[in-house]
Amino acid sequence: KGLTKRFGGNVAVKSVDYSVQQGKINAIIGPNGAGKTTTMRIITCYLSPTSGTVKVEGKDNQTESMEVRRCIGYLPEQNPLYYDMNVLEYLEYTAQLQGVAKHSIPQRVRKMVDVCALDEMKHKDIGQLSKGYRQRVGLAAAMIHDPKILILDEPTSGLDPNQIIEIRNLIRELGKEKTVILSTHILSEVQATCSRVIIINRGKIVADGPIEELQRGLHGGERVQMEVEVPDGHSFDMVSVHLKAIPAIESVSLINENNGVKRLAIDTSGPVDIRRELFNMCVQKGWTLLELRRELTSLEDIFRQLTAE
Q: What are the C-alpha distances in Å from 180 to residues 96, 109, 161, 221, 225?
């Protein structure tokens, strides 16, 4: 609440307010220098805020920072690994650092090796692993103490497409049990993984909500593309008049026309799904419906509109 961080004359984060529900995957996205990493570092007690408060599980992260750190698993953008240790040694070491009970360490290490699919690599030195497996080791280390909250800063940075899919699937599975906050520049990853998006620009939150809600909210209504074959003599104007008789339709425009097949863009006056009414209209008028789909504003378009200079 009211989170602000200044570095000299530069204000990196400006009065940021948001809360995160348990058991959700939340994305923080924004241009370079927008304040994403600074915000994450403050939440994890790595940096102190200039003003404002952060509470994790009801605990203040300034006055009860050790309790807050026990609740959080943190994977920073630069994954801090010891390359001369093998995977099992490193996970045992991080479990000790996190205060895991001595008798529970072997069990926690085995579980993390299983969850992060590290069994084939567990005896190898970390320096011998590919970047994808190093990210898996970093995730395993972040979860070794079974935290309720995971904070992941660019978890798929520098990975190839196959590795990205593997890490994405792992994060999706983790999101079923834990609260996840992640930062990334890969918007397709956000769309595939996250239930909520927070967009930060110049240190301020400029959008916050489920992706579909942001897509609808950008223009207030919905757009449906329809491809329909109509009998000879049915002009676009005639088809448009019939469609506009449906109350929620605000405008109908012709995208293209070929041999009696018309591709139309239909805009509604509010967030209403009109596909059923369009189908019924086609049946009533004897038109052949070839395609009907909702057209949502892409996350890339939303990002550009809200963060463009």
A: 23, 21, 22, 30, 35
Please tell me the distance from the alpha carbon of residue 97 to that of residue 206, in angstroms, as a whole number.
Answer: 38
Q: What residues does 225 pair with on adjacent strands?
A: 265, 293
pLDDT of 229-240, one tens digit each?
998 878 899 999
CA terminus-to-terminus distance, the chain: 26
Backbone angle region of 99, left / alpha / beta, with phi > 0 → left and psi within -120 to 50 → alpha:
left
Task: Provide the whole-model pTM.
Answer: 0.76
Q: Sign (positive/negative) of CA torsion 82, 83, 88, 91? A: positive
Higher pLDDT, 13 or 160: 13
Q: Which residue has the tokens 């205060």?
A: 99
- How much is the CA Rg of the chain, to the nearest whole Å? 25
Of 74, 76, 54, 73, the residue nearest 64 (C-alpha): 54
Q: What is the mean pLDDT of residues 26-41?
A: 91
219, pLDDT greater than 60: no
Reference 166, options 94, 119, 109, 115; nearest CA is 115
Burial class for 222, CB neighbours closer than 10 Å (0-12, 13-18, 19+): buried
| pLDDT tens-place string over residues 94-103 | 999 999 999 9
**What are the angstrom distances between the C-alpha of 146 and each of 77, 130, 143, 164, 174?**
20, 25, 5, 23, 11
Please give the average per-residue pLDDT across 138-149, as a whole number: 93
Rounded Cα distance between 266 and 240, Å, is: 9
